[in-house]
C-alpha cells in the first residue's frame, strides 16, 4: 500500500481547528476524540483553572480545553513526522 506524503507543518496548521489535522493524516478516531474532547471541555467549561479543584491540586492556569488543543497541534505535527519517517521519506522540517 502506497501512502501519500503528509506535510507536518500543514498537519499542525490544520490542527488549529480541533481534529482537522488528524483527519488530514487519516487518524480519524484521534480526530474525533480531539474534536469532542476539546469542544466538550470548552463548551461545558470543565477546565481545571483557579476553581476549588484547581486550587487544591495547585493548577495555576487553565488546564483543559486550551491545553488539550495545544497538545493536539503538537501531536498532529509529531504524527505526520512519524508517518514520514516510517514511509521512508526524509522529513522536510
How would you characterize this protein structure?
- By secondary structure, the chain is mainly α.
- The chain is 62% helix and 0% strand.
- The chain has 5 helices and no strands.
- 26% of the residues are buried.
Write the layout of secondary structure elements.
Layout: H1 8-14, H2 20-25, H3 28-44, H4 52-57, H5 65-86
Helix pairs in contact: 1-5, 3-5
What's this entry about, in short?
The protein has 93 residues and is mostly helical. Helix content is 62%, strand content 0%. The protein contains five helices and no strands.
Q: What key attributes describe this structure?
A:
single chain, 93 residues, mainly alpha, 62% helix, elongated
- Fraction in helix: 55-70%
Strands, count: 0
H and E string: HHHHH
Percent of sequence in beta strands: under 5%
Coarse shape: elongated
Continuous helix count: 5
Largest sheet descriptor: none
The pLDDT mean sits at: 79
Cα-atom radius of gyration:
16 Å
Amino acid at each position: 500500500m502506497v501512502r501519500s506524503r503528509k506535510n507536518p507543518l500543514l498537519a499542525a496548521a490544520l490542527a488549529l481547528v480541533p481534529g482537522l489535522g488528524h483527519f488530514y493524516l487519516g487518524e480519524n478516531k484521534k480526530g474525533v476524540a480531539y474534536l469532542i474532547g476539546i469542544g466538550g471541555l470548552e463548551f461545558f467549561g470543565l477546565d481545571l483553572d483557579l476553581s476549588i479543584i484547581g486550587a487544591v491540586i495547585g493548577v495555576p492556569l487553565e488546564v483543559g480545553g486550551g491545553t488539550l488543543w495545544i497538545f493536539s497541534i503538537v501531536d498532529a505535527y509529531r504524527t505526520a513526522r512519524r508517518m514520514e519517517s516510517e514511509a521512508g521519506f526524509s522529513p522536510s522540517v
